[in-house]
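Protein modeling request. Please complete all fields; requests missing the sequence field cannot be processed.
Requester role: graduate student
Desired output: 3D structure, token encoding
Chains: 1
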Amino acid sequence: MGSPEVSVILPTYQERESLELLAPLLAHALAGYAAEVVVVDDASPDGTADYAASRSGALPWKVVRRARRLGLASAVLDGIAASTSPVIVVMDADGSHPPDTLPALIDTVRQGGAELALASRRASGASMTGFVGLRKMVSSVAGALARPLTKVSDPMTGYFAMRRSILGRSPLTPVGYKIGLEILVKCRPRPVVEIPFHFGPRMAGESKLDRREIGSYLQHLWRLYWWRLVSTGRTSRTR
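Delivered output (239 residues):
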């Protein structure tokens, strides 16, 4: 196999059980591409990294092992650094992001239809069964707080494909877990295409959303609003 044209980044923490279920679905969805899967694992005690490293077959898996739990956004950046392909996909490893949406995301970017293709839970035709209770409420509030920063319908999605080249437009310094929002705001991809998908329940395990993650998101949001204010001021002074 030559150099991959698509890298799928999977940040993980205690996701072995869901990865075992997800692996064949990824292999099927990516069968038509020169693709790789990059698992970035935060020292999962359940053997997630060992399972990913044991994978073999037509779809190569690469594992980045980190010494402790450092967070989803930084895991994505480490995964990107470990890959070389021109098209990058970011998705959750818990099964809530269905692999059958991958071809639509990848082809939209590869064929020049978008610099970033975003899997949206709120676009026309989308559906959700993976949001219940507190998780649904937190996501709705978080999305409303972020909406002034971007025009997309689902700024909180963690499932998207993009051209690697857009990442050179601005340094990324995300806090917490919403790397997609950071890229939308700082890298200004144009155009952005939203693709509806079904957001399902986790295949296995438990949600990592807790007070710490919510606090990190609020800190991240403040930093993005400040960045937008400062960058807008700089643009005005150069005109």
